[in-house]
Design brief:
Shape: elongated
Mean pLDDT: 81
CATH topology of the largest domain: MetI-like fold
Helix content: over 70%
Largest sheet: none
CATH class of the largest domain: Mainly Alpha
Low-confidence stretches: none
Oligomer: single chain
Order of helices and strands: HHHHHHHHHHHHHH
Distance between the termini: 8 Å
Strand content: under 5%
Number of domains: 2
Structural class: mainly alpha
Radius of gyration: 24 Å
């Protein structure tokens, strides 16, 4: 496993270098002058020239990239053009809230999606299976912003059970977690059902039933564990998406996470904040994929790392 981990970390280096280059290029691809965005168009030429020198924008591109890459390797992602705060400090404040939302959405999706999939596979073609699979089509097709608005309308405006937005008590977490995890619930249900139906046709399942084991034990201990590999893949990819792609959810529910921070940075053209956030989220996504691969062995001992 250690050799596998080392190989994966080495393979991640070119990916992260490519992300670093793309993130650095944002400063020059984006229209407009970042210095003028900071001081305004009425600033005098001396002030503009001084800021360009402070930000190293007057240096050749290779020197600028070397300075930026060196700072990123040291954990220095620069300072915000708008607030002047270190980007890494903003990320440390915002990312735990995104992580909280992502963890809640993943737990909800895993519990609900796997349970629905197992229940559907236990009696394929039954009334529960037909209703559940029909609802999963809706869940997969519905965009997250539409689901979020419907949840706010029903549970916050009409029923008044939950707050429509904000951050605080656990009640504020329910609607954004449900909106973020809705597609994963549907996809996991279909994936689990398909994997379970394939496993339930195996000889060892018939042997377990012939021993007189309860159906609950056959489904949970013997069938589900052998059907978990594709489910873990979906969970790992979706968790990475929750951490890096929850911008719409955080915006709709005014959740003060990293996704909303990126939206605010884009609206204010705060390029260092955008660069630092994208680079950080890319590293997080690579690490989540690596952890997902390592979890395979825990779920199925037959998986090897050769």
């Amino acid at each position: 496993m250690l050799s596998f981990l080392a190989r994966r970390l080495l393979l991640a280096i070119p990916t992260l270098v490519g992300v670093l280059v793309v993130v650095f290029a944002l400063l020059y691809v984006a229209p407009g002058d970042p210095v003028l965005e900071m001081v305004g168009e009425r600033a005098d030429s001396a002030t503009i020239a001084r800021l360009r020198k402070e930000l190293r924008l007057d240096e050749p591109l290779p020197n600028q990239f070397a300075h930026y890459a060196g700072g990123a390797l040291r954990g220095d992602l620069g300072r915000s053009y708008i607030t002047g705060r270190p980007i890494l400090r903003d990320i440390r404040e915002r990312f735990p809230k995104t992580l909280e939302l992502a963890a809640a959405a993943m737990c909800l999706a895993a519990i609900a999606g796997i349970s629905i999939g197992v229940a559907s596979a236990a009696r394929p073609g039954g009334w529960f299976d037909r209703i559940a699979m029909a609802l999963t089509y809706v869940g997969i097709s519905a965009p997250v912003y539409w689901v979020g608005l419907i949840l706010i309308l029903v549970f916050a405006v009409i029923l008044r059970w939950l707050p429509p937005s904000g951050f605080g008590h656990v009640r504020y977490l329910v609607l954004p977690a449900l909106a973020l995890g809705s597609r994963s619930i549907a996809f996991l249900a279909r994936m689990t059902r398909s994997a379970m139906l394939e496993v339930l046709g195996g000889d060892y399942i018939r042997t377990a039933r012939a021993k007189g084991l309860r159906e609950r034990v056959v489904l949970g201990r013997h069938a589900l564990r052998n059907a978990l590999i594709p489910v873990i893949t979906v969970l790992g990819l979706d968790f990475g998406y929750y951490l890096t792609g929850s911008i719409l959810t955080e915006t709709i529910f005014s959740w003060p996470g990293l996704g909303r921070y990126v939206v605010n940075a884009i609206s204010r053209r705060d390029l260092p904040a955008i660069q630092g956030s994208v680079l950080f989220l890319s590293v997080v996504f690579v690490l989540v994929n690596l952890i997902t691969d390592l979890v395979y062995a825990a779920a199925d001992p037959r998986v090897t790392y050769e």
